[in-house]
Amino acid sequence: MYSHKPFMLIVSAPSGCGKTTLLHMLRDKVDGIGFSVSHTTRPKRKNEVDGIDYHFVSRDEFAKMLDAGFFVESATVHLNAYGTSFTAVDTLLAKGDDVLLDIDVQGMQRLKSAKRYDFISIFIMPPSLGELESRLRRRNTDSDSVVRQRLKNAEKEIKSASLYDYMVVNDDLNAAFLELSAIITAERLRTARIIF
Ligand code: 5GP
Fold it and tell me: How far apart are CA 103 and CA 49, in angstroms?
């Protein structure tokens, strides 16, 4: 049997596009995928688990780690610091897993310029801004001003979609999941990644 050299999959999306659901589906249904757990200074949400969703750290701890060169890339998103550690990525790659990274546009661009890792990037797109607004309002978790801020951010982020290798529109969840799986399958079959 042939195997392939493991690679990284960067997935970005404006909030409300169903990215988290899609990533959980990938993690649960596609073999050989590991999830890179980022560090963040953002407070933990009710349903989140430290060490699984994020490593939650103080601003002080984060600053020390940053100075010590602990992160492959880091960025400030909505006033909080987020970073991908070398440990998170390298441990999974060494196991032979393809590594899924849920990071924003800045993070993707930093990884691209670092030229250190083999990665592909996928942008999840809402069917339209109107549909994104309905989803954010249906979720009923944010105030009107937060929804408007998220929509403004989404408009900005969508302009960066062309910097990514692939774009998947999340209109129907299962169709989007199948498209993501197809991208992963094709990338695993690239001869450049096959170990002969
Ligand atoms: P949330 O706080 O809602 O979990 O995430 C907010 C944003 O931060 C999302 O767009 C997510 O992709 C991004 N993010 C999460 N971890 C990292 C990271 O390690 N690096 C970067 N650049 N962005 C991250």
Answer: 18
Q: Which atom of ligand 1 is nearest to the CA of 110?
A: 22
In short, whether 105's Cβ falls inside 6 Å of ligand 1 is: no
Confirm or reject: Cβ of 104 under 6 Å from ligand 1: yes
Query: Is there a contact between 166 and 183 (Cβ–Cβ < 8 Å)?
Result: yes
Task: Identify the structural domains of the chain with CATH numbers, from first to last.
Answer: 3-195 (3.40.50.300)
Q: What is the pLDDT of residues 53-64, one digit of tens each?
A: 999 999 999 999
- 0.70 exceeded by pTM: yes
Phi, psi of 182 (to 5 degrees): -65, -40
CA distances from 140 to 87, 110, 133 (A): 36, 33, 11
Q: What is residue 36's three-state secondary structure? A: coil
